[in-house]
Amino acid sequence: MTKAQAKERVAKLRQVIDHHRYLYHVFDRQEISEAALDSLKHELYRLEQRFPELITPDSPTQRVGGKPLEQFSKVTHAAPMLSMEDVFSPEELAAWRDRLANYLGRELGGFYAEIKMDGLAVSLVYRDGVLAGGATRGDGRVGEDVLMNLKTIEAIPLTLRVPEEKEISAFLKEFGDGIDEKVFRAAVTGHRGRIEVRGEAFMRKKVFDALNREQEKAGLPPFANPRNASAGSIRQLDSSITRARHLDFYGYALLGDFGLSTHEQAHEAMKLLGVPVNPLNRRAADLGEVEKYHREIGLKRPQLEYWTDGAVVVVNDDKLFERLGVVGKTPRGIVAYKFPAEQATTVVEDVRVQVGRTGVLTPVAVMRPVFVAGTTVMHATLHNMDEIDRLGLKIGDTVIIEKAGDVIPKVVKVLAEARTGKEKAFHMPKKCPECGAAVVRRAGEVAHVCPNKNCPAQSLGRVLHVVSRGAFDMQGLGDKIIERFLEEGLIRDAADLFTLRKEDIAKLERFGDLSATNVIDTIHARKSLPLWRFIYALGIRHIGGETAIDLADRFHDIAALRKASLEELTAVDNVGPVMAESLRGWFDDPENAAFVDKLLRHVVIERPKAKSKGPLSGQSFVLTGTLESMSRDEAADRIRELGGSVSEAVGKKTSYVVVGADPGSKFEKAKKLKVPILNEKEFLAIVK
Ligand SMILES: [Zn+2]
């Protein structure tokens, strides 16, 4: 990117960010998610880092929090309450560490890792051990005096505690390295002068849900998120309202002369003083341990009683932290390591069209790479032309993309206000990009389709589906190899794979004897397979792996399934009229029938094991999110072993939804339909 391009982009980003801040703060309207706004700020921050001359004092990156409200008296913070920079990936975290080490010309030593609480940052000032001041962060320099309200929070001590001698010696024994013991003892027992504790006032999930139910009953708008709820509860002119909201508090910084030398010591010292700190915070010797911590917290997240959107990573050595200093309003030595957000913003650089095995043309957005939900994403499906029209998407647009769990990323919104006028409209091609056949759009269907059954893209798609993991599972037969076989005329369909000869493959350029043998071995090792895999391999529209299992359980052999009437098909669990019609229509097509016959000449279908009767017989499970102790496939196998069934979609017949970390939309659906929800622990108790 040239400087001129960066300048244009920076101006646009500021405009878009300010627009959404304005909507939010003035009209209480949130049109894009927090994560999307973060993503825009992140891009702006990165550009400003690359071109520092583009930083202006009014840039959104230079701002902390909001302006203090007029109704409250103002408090000037003794030391400014600063903000943190965000990082979103291990690479960005490592780059942060390298920058700091470079700046200091030495290694950083260890870190302290904390849970980033999603609440409101506040400052508590103690004079001679008595709580005498309490303020919000405000703009970082000047906050609002909310002492009366903070005093209603039970977790905040009104007077600092004097620890017993044995606690002090235990502390010194465990954490005493580098401490000025005399100063520490005097401070921790005498509390003389000014001591400041900074921390987060927050609302527990249960309290938040109850509060929103009350808001709803009273006909008031619900709070969008716990941070708003915490902030709204503290910035109350009537303290009795704050009290009724049952807020909580964890400290994260201790200011005063305690003779300490690390951030960890400050946390431990707060405990001695009776200030609650998050018990999950801990020292991390290096970034490897930080990563481990981050992963652990990410997995625990659904079970935690409060919200968190990441970890805070601090250079543990206080002296180094100070030497690292502050840039603008962010200290160098601290960073927020966010959990993978499910939304991010990026730019659509092109739209390409893919032709699938059924001939459907799918437009795919080619995007500037962006890190979202734990992976770098460059493509997002746009589904069809209707979807592009609905989004109003043009090539060159800035968009919000979303990726939840293992779901394919999708574009959820176009930020039209970020346009420069150079964006280009996208049109579906009139001819198939793979074979040149005229594209058709059947009446009543949204999809554009290549009608040519011999279209190379369709043939390739069909064979790839047959060899895919859920079907024949021929690992090692990737798309490059299959494409080659088709191009060379070695195969015309998947059934031909079984009659391939080693010599034919070995003759191909860049294929040696060895790899030809491997390919043949792989194919022949998969000649025998369970009925459900065979059904799934046929690639019949609407028939996924779980439905294939239900069909196999009911019909036991392929001949019976091929003959089944619509009535017999709809009588199968989880099979509706659309699936039944799709099956019947597929088997009735003579070409498909010939393909099945051809496959059956080479393949052995294993006799299905009698469905085991077990403690879970008659119970249907849906799995979503990541489980800590086993993969989702393992969990599904375990359920089936015990006689239960596993379904892909949440419905009225679902007995339980098992929810792991970062669950997808199935979790929301389960809550909506009031289907019983199991966390991993509860699930394990059932399947043990
Ligand atoms: Zn085609």
Shape: elongated
Low-pLDDT runs: none
CATH evolutionary superfamily of the largest domain: DNA ligase/mRNA capping enzyme
The total count of strands amounts to 25
Distance, first to last CA: 56 Å
CATH architecture of the largest domain: 2-Layer Sandwich
> Measured on Cα atoms, how large is the radius of gyration?
30 Å
What is bound: which ligands?
A: zinc ion
Structural class: alpha+beta
| Quaternary structure annotation | single chain
What's the CATH C level of the largest domain?
A: Alpha Beta
Question: Which characteristics define this entry?
Answer:
single chain, 688 residues, alpha+beta, Helix Hairpins, OB fold (Dihydrolipoamide Acetyltransferase, E2P), 6-stranded antiparallel sheet, 26 helices, 39% helix, binds zinc ion
Can you put this structure into words, describing what you see?
The chain has five domains: 3-62, Helix Hairpins (Orthogonal Bundle); 83-337, 2-Layer Sandwich (D-amino Acid Aminotransferase, Chain A, domain 1), CATH 3.30.470.30; 343-448, Nucleic acid-binding proteins (OB fold (Dihydrolipoamide Acetyltransferase, E2P), Beta Barrel), CATH 2.40.50.140; 456-606, Orthogonal Bundle (DNA polymerase, domain 1); 620-687, 3-Layer(aba) Sandwich (Rossmann fold), CATH 3.40.50. The radius of gyration is 30 Å and the shape is elongated. The relative contact order is 0.07. Strands 14, 15, 16, 17, 18 and 19 form a six-stranded antiparallel beta sheet that branches. A five-stranded mixed beta sheet has the order 2-13-10-3-9. Strand 4 and strand 5 form a beta hairpin. With 688 residues, it is of the alpha+beta class. Helix 1 packs antiparallel against helix 2, helix 14 packs across helix 15 and helix 18 packs across helix 19 (545-555). The mean pLDDT is 89. It starts with a helix and ends with a helix. The longest helix has 25 residues, at 3-27. The protein contains 26 helices and 25 strands. Bound molecules: zinc ion. Residues 355, 432, 434-435, 437, 450, 452, 455, 457 line the site of zinc ion. Zinc ion (ZN) binds at residues 355, 432, 434-435, 437, 450, 452, 455, 457.
